[in-house]
Design brief:
There is one protein chain. The strands form two sheets. Strands 3-2-1-4-6-7-9 form a seven-stranded parallel beta sheet, sandwiched between helices. Strands 5-8 form a two-stranded parallel sheet. The protein is built from nine helices and nine strands. The N and C termini lie far apart (about 55 Å). The chain is of the alpha/beta class and about 280 residues long. Helices cover about 45% and strands about 15% of the residues.
Length: about 280
């Protein structure tokens, strides 16, 4: 029986992960700022569900949540760092306070939970960390610069963690969803900067105008995405990174092609910067 530890489990991907894991007979430690909301959303699983209060920006709470999980179930097999928030606006429009708030949850929150749980996984010599990133963790987008930067950070340290933990029997997978029909674009998850600079009207401003019209009309199905996450967890060799949604796959393929074209165009200049005593292949 697999024991899951899921952050941000009161709604969206987190709640759906908890639901599907419980439905297949697993045990779930579902953390949220309001654990009562989790219990109300998932009734009838008292023996296999532990709802725990957790604000991921509080390192002490993260440690307490992990301790409660181990005390109740004796182990943790899968950790899903799902809690997150968005910020919509041009980089210049974003206030210091708003930027720090997004980083506190999306970056430092993931680090808080990871530091709390990794001693358990290392001692077990087993486990799987699923870090929820985004298409914005691979390619930047006007209006989403600050949010994308937090996901770029998560992807960077997740890649390093995978290299560090693989010899210890612990897997790390980065999940990059595109636009999915969750409540991420609602005001409860997404902050929109009030400062508006007219010069960005055709870029971040256009994105600001677009978002209300696509909310709850996104192409991705969260139920199918979570079913895919369960398949990843069950795989004998899970991927280090995976994209969810046709929009995400298309954006990834376009960026890879753009990177290859740009690298080829500037290859000679790139190679020219070595010391003369370094032999560089052509």
């Amino acid at each position: 029986m697999v024991t899951w530890f899921v952050t941000g489990a009161s709604r969206g991907f987190g709640l759906e992960i908890a639901r599907q894991a419980l439905e297949r007979g697993d045990r779930v430690v579902a953390t949220a700022r309001n654990p009562k909301a989790v219990e109300e959303a998932l009734p009838g699983y008292d023996d296999r569900l532990l709802a725990v209060a957790l604000d991921v920006t509080d390192e002490t709470q993260a440690q307490a949540a992990v301790s409660a999980a181990v005390e109740r179930f004796g182990k943790i097999d899968v950790v899903v760092n799902n809690a997150g928030r968005g910020l919509l606006g041009a980089v210049e429009e974003a206030s210091d306070a708003a930027v720090r708030a997004v980083y506190d949850t999306n970056v430092f929150g993931v680090l808080n939970v990871s530091r709390a749980v990794l001693p358990v996984l290392r001692a077990q010599r087993s486990g799987h960390i699923i870090n929820m990133s985004s298409v914005g963790g691979f390619t930047g987008s006007a209006g989403w610069g600050i949010y994308c930067s937090t996901k770029f950070a998560v992807e960077g340290f997740s890649e390093a963690m995978q290299l560090e933990l693989e010899p210890l029997g612990v897997n790390v997978t980065i999940v990059e969803p595109g636009y999915f029909r969750t409540d991420f674009l609602d005001g409860t998850s997404l902050a929109t900067e009030q400062q508006v600079i007219d010069d960005y009207a055709k870029t971040s401003g256009a994105m600001r105008d677009l978002v209300p019209g696509i909310n709850h009309a996104q192409p991705g199905d969260p139920v199918k995405a979570v079913a895919a996450i369960l398949q990843i967890v069950d795989a004998p060799k899970p991927p280090r990174r995976i994209q969810f949604g046709s929009d995400c796959v298309a954006d990834l393929e376009k960026k890879i092609a753009d990177l290859q074209e740009e690298a080829a165009t500037w290859r000679e200049l790139s190679l020219s910067t070595d010391h003369d005593d370094v032999k560089t292949g052509s």
